From TrEMBL, chain A:
Species lineage: Bacteria, Pseudomonadati, Bacteroidota, Flavobacteriia, Flavobacteriales
Swiss-Prot/TrEMBL keywords: Membrane, Transmembrane, Transmembrane helix
Keyword Ribosomal protein: no
Keyword Coiled coil: no
Top-rank taxon, per record: Bacteria
Membrane-spanning ranges: 20-39, 59-82, 94-114, 126-146, 187-206, 212-230
InterPro entries according to UniProt: DUF1275
Listed Pfam families: DUF1275 (PF06912)
Descriptive protein name: DUF1275 family protein
TrEMBL record, chain B:
Transmembrane segments: 6-22
Keyword Membrane: yes
Assigned keywords, A-Z: Membrane, Transmembrane, Transmembrane helix
Descriptive protein name: Lipocalin-like domain-containing protein
Length: 255, 158
């Protein structure tokens, strides 16, 4: 999911990464709406709210929303910075894993704060929403950057646009039979259903376990990191074993 | 050069935000004080000719029957997050309040009934306008308007 970069990524890599991260994004969004009455993974709405607050002359609220949008921007910025400045073969996995680790740290901080320290003041709410938006920015920046913008886990407006265009293309036979377009549609549908599924599950979990829902989100992100780490370790092990394997094959041929 | 200009705009916007947040009162600070109910109106009704209709006392009682805010005239928000409802000189109810979102949601918590959420459409030094959805006879939004009860300082009195 995280090891490969740009066009070296397979359809399977993208669908696994897209599915899992969209699921977590859906969960984060629903939890933030339940707890804080603010969306944290769809920024389009925040732009509309920002314009509305400016028009009404509510400068305090406008400044808060603008800072939230900026935090989402900073998440994307940080994520891509880490990726492009560590694009060597040896450090690539690490560079791709760090944004996920930072995202986990942000979400665990929010969960822990809610559980142990939250006094429900507006100031705390604003800070915690900002932390969640930063986390979502990190995730969206990572997935979009390493997949060559094929996977955007929180950008449902663009995804629905792409799906609309794709399905209109499928009205022509030549496009219907195009494997590339079929795969694209499958990927987009997987992201859409994962996002929705994540949202529904978050609603169910929050009623049962409340702030511990953040632990489940972090667990899912751990799978994203550990899956590739285990693959990497297997590959390294095989590479280390390769001289012996070769010698064994040559010895087998000689006898 | 162009990039520096863009960075400068970003920095200016950020500084503006920080300045506004430091100088302006948050909705949580603005709400502290005593507020008197001025009017109840249907803000939006489902039928096409949705005009503003004032709600009379009977309708008000019916709408507010199952709500925490029933039949109050004065709402007193205190800094320790307590909201006291009163009518005339009688104190009717006391509960906890919180602000959520960007300061646009007022959450009222009652020990027995649970919590209710109201949307703050407008809040300033003098006026507060709250909306809440209801589904009684006609579906729509009730717009509640409040006026701040000004407490004159000693200097103003003399």
């Amino acid at each position: 999911m995280l090891r490969k970069y740009s066009n070296f990524r397979s359809f399977s890599d993208n669908i696994k990464l897209g599915g899992l991260t969209a699921f977590t994004a859906g969960m984060v969004n629903v939890v933030s709406v339940i707890v804080f009455f603010a969306f944290t993974s769809n920024v389009t709405g925040h732009y509309a709210i920002l314009a509305q607050e400016i028009a009404k002359g509510n400068w305090y609220q406008a400044a808060v929303v603008l800072l939230w949008v900026f935090l989402f921007f900073m998440g994307n910025f940080t994520s891509n910075c880490l990726i492009i400045h560590n694009n060597s073969k040896s450090s690539r996995y690490f560079a791709h894993a760090v944004p996920v680790l930072l995202e986990m740290a942000c979400l665990l901080f929010v969960g822990a704060y809610l559980e142990f320290f939250y006094t429900e003041t507006l100031y705390e709410t604003e800070i915690l929403v900002a932390a969640m938006l930063f986390a979502m920015g990190l995730q969206n920046g990572l997935t979009a950057s390493i997949s060559n913008a094929k996977v955007k886990t929180t950008h449902l407006t663009g995804l629905t646009t792409d799906l609309g265009i794709l399905f209109s293309m499928f009205t022509k036979r030549e496009f219907r039979e195009d494997v590339k377009l079929q795969k694209k549609a499958k990927l987009l549908l997987a992201i859409m259903f994962s996002y929705m599924g994540g949202g529904i599950m978050a609603g169910v979990f929050y009623i049962q376990i409340q702030n511990y829902t953040f632990l489940i989100i972090s667990l899912l992100l751990t799978i994203v990191i550990v899956y590739d780490y285990s693959k990497l370790q297997v590959t390294r092990y095989m590479q280390r074993r390769q001289p012996f394997v070769r010698r064994y094959i040559i010895a087998g041929k000689e006898s | 050069m162009k990039l520096r200009f863009i960075y400068a705009i970003f920095m200016a916007m950020l500084l503006c935000c920080i300045f506004i947040l430091a100088k302006k009162s948050s909705p949580e600070q603005l709400i502290i004080g005593e507020w008197e109910e001025v009017s109840w109106e249907y803000e939006k009704t489902d039928h096409e000719n949705g005009v503003h209709v004032f709600i009379d006392e009977n309708q008000k009682d019916e709408i507010a029957q199952n709500l925490i805010i029933h039949k109050a005239e004065v709402w007193k928000f205190t800094e320790d997050k307590t909201l006291v409802f009163s009518k005339g000189t009688a104190q009717m109810e006391q509960l906890k309040w919180n602000m959520k979102g960007r300061g646009h949601i007022l959450e009222l918590k009652h020990n027995e009934i649970g919590s209710e959420n109201y949307q703050i459409a407008e809040i300033n030094q003098d006026t507060m306008v709250m909306h809440f959805n209801f589904d009684l006879q006609v579906r729509g939004i009730v717009k509640m308007t409040f006026k701040r009860i000004q407490k004159d300082s000693y200097a103003q009195k003399i």
